[in-house]
Every structure is written in structure tokens, then in C-alpha cells.
Amino acid sequence: MGGTWTTQNKVRPGVYINFQQKEIEPEGLHRGIVTMPLSLDFGPEQKVIEVSHNTDTLPIFGEELYNIVPIREALKRAEKVLVYRLNTVSEGTKASVTEGNLTATAKYTGTTGNKLKIVVEVESDKFNVKTFIRTKLVDYQQSVSKVEELQNNDYVEFSGTGKLSATAGIALTGGSNSTINENSYNKYRESIEVYYFNACALFDVSDVNIKNAFKQWIKRLREDEGNKTLLVVENYSSANYEGIISVKNGVVLEDGTTLEAKKATAWVAGATAAANTNQSLTYDFYDGAVDVDVKYNYTAIESAINSGEFIFTSYDGKARVEYDINTLHTYSKDKGRMFRKNRVIRTLDAINNDITKIGNDYFIGKISNNEDGRNLLKNEIIKCLQKYENIDSITNLDTGKDVQVLASGDTDVVIVRIAAQPVDGMEKLYMTVEVK
Fold first, then answer.
1. Of 182, 367, 373, 388, which sits most exposed with the smallest number of CB within 10 A?
2. CATH of region 96-171, choose from 3.90.226.10, 2.60.40.4290, 2.60.34.30, 1.10.287.370
3. Domain ranges in the chain?
4. How far apart are the first and last CA of the chain?
């Protein structure tokens, strides 16, 4: 359990951390995981499915990995994608077909079920039964006499009784997708919260009501529960929040496919999730893109940056990230301009996650709240921060001043104060050239 705090009023045991952009006055996990809720034409309904580069997605979603655009684009950088199919069983329809004694029903709802076909061939006094998706053979059962002997496969379920009869090919029909609404996304958020992930992408979503609901969700995860994940959406700079990235435009891929902003969110989420705490995506290139879909002039790009937009610009036959920023564009004493930088946020989030894990795994409920126990905690926090200093994520760490572990008026409470100076990328280079 974790999150942020304003007063010592938390009920659940846990680690609660605030990051503030100020000095401390002396006083007496793993990256590369993306999740996406998707409307798909086949696959397990309303379940979380883990997909990585070597996953065979054909038996899961009825498509090869390279044909599932959002997953493919995210995996250009991400290690794995936690996919959630938004479509429901109750409102969708499974494709099916009946021929003689045999009925074949698609395993899942959706229009891809209409691309399934069953072939029954005679062999001596028995039959061979083949299942095809489009033209690809995906299941082959030999020497079968009765329907009851058939085994369900990844694509269809067989039913009926009695002897089989030969057929050159019977196509399944009637498969349909359920509609997607706000309740579909509500169920996704409930399901995904128990998983660890670095970024969530809203792929192909323009509905402002859905965006607003996700904003409240991501703020709750980050601030109340200590789950420091990021949300990537299109054209939502009004979020004005360091945990949300707003993609303003899209890209054109090498094969001529245009991915507008609401679809480019998949790559941005994958790249964000995979980037380390010592990396910035500023001027990084979108893998496999040769142009941007919408071009902006100098003034419009400046305006977009000032509004907190993540924008792509065209450069030398490629599409590159102009500035690796989030939507925060109203600054305060505690959250200055550095908090709009995604590299900085990645560093602060990583420190939060590490210290939360240290506290939860080794201290809470295990170590006495006395001077020795607090010194042990301080030493572990210092080692954590030194790790990030060694990889150039933070700098100027003063172990004598920048970490304080203090007693509180409550016997079970420890106050931890940390001053961390994140390292930013070199993103602006000013030169004065003297001409002699």
C-alpha cells in the first residue's frame, strides 16, 4: 500500500511519499510493460492477456501479431503488453454452423469467427476434420467416426451426436462484436488494477468522457495508491497533470499506413514504458515511420509545447518526438517546470516504487520503530538513491542532508524526507558564434 499524503491521516499500513521541488531544511521495479483496453474482433472477452514479442496471437485473437496494429506498435519498444478485450460475451455473438449431426461454434464472439471454416474428409470408413481460419489450417483431427470424438480447439467448439458426414467446407456465420461503452472501460479499470504496468494507452479513443474518467483513475492510482503509472491519450492537454501524456498528431508508416494521434498512443506508451530513468525520448524517432500525418509550423509547435502536447515532427524522412513532455503546464511552488519532463517523472516514479518496495518488504511490521530501526531504513534509502545517481538519473546527492528518517508523535509512524535532484536531458543548446 502506498500513495501521497498531506497530513498523517492514513488508515492502511503502507509507505506514503510526497515529492516536492524544494530543499530539505535540516531538523532536531521493472520497466517496459504497457496495458491497453481494445475493441477486438476475436479473443477472450473482458480478460487480461499478456502478449510479448514471441506470443502466437493467432489462436488468441484470430490475427497474426503483425496485423494487430496497437499491440504491434506498442511492442516496437515495450517488453510486453497487457491486452484487455473490451467486447462482452452477453452482447456479442459467436459464429456457428451446423451440417448434419455436427455443429461448430466459434470459441469467442466477434466477426473474425465468420472467417472460420470446417472441412470433413473421408478416409476409409472414418473422417479427418480440419479447421481453417481464412486459408490457414489451424487444427487437424484424424480418423474420427462420430461427432462426440472431436476435441475442441483454440478456435471452435464442437457439439452434436452421431456419425460425421463429409463436406468440402462449411463456413461459420453470424459472428458479431458487442458495442463498446463507458461501462466497458469501467470493467477494464477494475480488472487491470491488480497488475503492474508502466503505462496505459487509450488506443483509438476520442470520447472526452472516457478520457476524463481515466484521468480520475490515473490520479487515484498515483496519488492514493502509490501506483506510479502513466496514461497516454490523444489531444487531452487540458488534463494538465504530470501523469498524463497527450499525443497531438500521428505518423505515416513505411508501408503508407497513417496512424493518427489516437492510434499513435500505442507507440508512445510503449516507448515511455521502455525508457529508463536516464533516458529522454526528445528527438527520438518513431520506429518505422517516414513522416507525420499533420505538420505544424514553428509557432504552432511552440504553442503545442507550452500547452503540454507530445508532438511528432518530420525530420529527414522520419518522424521524431519533438519534446518528451506530459500535460502539466500550470506550475506551482511544489511542482515546477521540471515536472512536465517525462524523464524526470520516470526517475521520481522509480524512486517512489523502489522505496515503497523497501518499506513494504523489509520494514513495515518487521523492524522496530526506534533509532536503530530508523537508521537501517535511512541506509537502505541512501543505497537506493545512490543507485540512481550512479546511472545518471539524479545528481548532487548529499547523504548527510538529503535523507532524513525521523520519529513521529505516533509510535508506529516514521517520517521520511528526501531531497532528490533529477538529471534532465540536454534538450536546448544555445550558441553564440563570433565572426572575425
1. 182
2. 2.60.40.4290
3. 2-30+331-422, 33-87+183-321, 96-171
4. 64
